[in-house]
Design brief:
- This protein is α/β, with parallel strands linked by helices.
- It has helices spanning about 20-30, 60-75, 100-105, 120-140, 150-155, 200-215, 230-240, 250-255, 270-275, 280-285, 320-330, 335-345, 350-365, and strands at about 1-5, 35-40, 50, 85-90, 110, 145, 165, 185-190, 220-225, 240-245, 260-265, 290-295, 310.
- The protein has a 7-stranded parallel sheet, with helices on both faces. Strands 10-9-8-11-12-13 form a 6-stranded parallel sheet, with helices on both faces.
- The chain is globular, with a radius of gyration of 21 Å.
Amino acid sequence: MNITWITGRDLDVDLASTTEIGLICAINNEKHIVRVMSPTKNIDNDNFEHIKFDKIRFRGLETFSAGFSLNNKLKGSKLVKEFSDCVIVDWCYVPMLRKELVNMEKPWFIIDRGPPVYRSILTKIQKRIWKRAWKIASKSAHGGFVVSKEHKKLVSKIGLKIKIHILNAGTNLNQFKENNRNLDDVVILSYCGRIDKNRGLMSIINLSKELEKESIKHIVNFMGEGDYVNYVKSIAKKSESLIYHGKIPRLEVYDILQKSHFGIMPMPDKKVWKAASPIKLAEYMASGLLIIGQDHPGNKTKENEKWSFLIKGEEWFKETPLIIKTIMKENNYQQLSDASRLSAKEYDWRIIAIKMIEYINLSIIK
């Protein structure tokens, strides 16, 4: 099968683009061919063909500028028509590509890695576009992809005539080495992802304060960028325990995770986060990390995982030091870490890719 995948993610620097890269490589390994269209300027990857489209990197204009660029590339072009058996399109481009998606006469699928999450006038506009995209897909797409059961419920409220496939975040275990580590003198905790205020990052700073009260030596790593960066940087400068690494290459992120003990899931119990399937969670598991943070469906894979220590409520950080002390006392960190890594095997990109292709084939046949 030949697939054209249109994504707005920068595959070179966007940490969240791990999903696209992981899936695309896994699909290609199953003897299918994926051609990617994205705004990535420079991409060093021999696993798939890449076609660049332009995007003005200014918030509010990104989607519209990219949509115009895509329209120009696709209009009257044989790029898709002669190559593709099907097309996968980010929801944000569906309204602007509506005519071209129909004219190319190929089965197409909408992919939604999550609805808009910011609070602003722009977000209100984006939410309207998001709903419109799904309504268009409901009329002419062969199917759609979401990231979780909660996300599927959210999308279904729009009223759909197409079947939806859940595409969980995954990981490539081969990129993470098995290693033994003990929970000794210094506890290392890490967060990777968007550094945005609405993601509950203040709770991580509060966790550090609670650990200090309990005389637990620790380091907290922040990796990523966002609207809360200046605040996090200012706090980190005054603290011996907090380190802000900035936006760093994916392999550097993996290196830091593999030297850590705990992966932090601070996203609050809000509708948009409950519907999430964060890539960071799969990467924490592949690194053998134990999970801490606020307890809700978007911050975990399933119930009662023995390596997951999520706590209900916004003040989860107050109870977490006792959990860490208990693990140190019982000296069972390595056992729990091994269980975390073992669970990550269920989220291997190959397994997710095979299910994705099966769904596409069945949707096209129908």
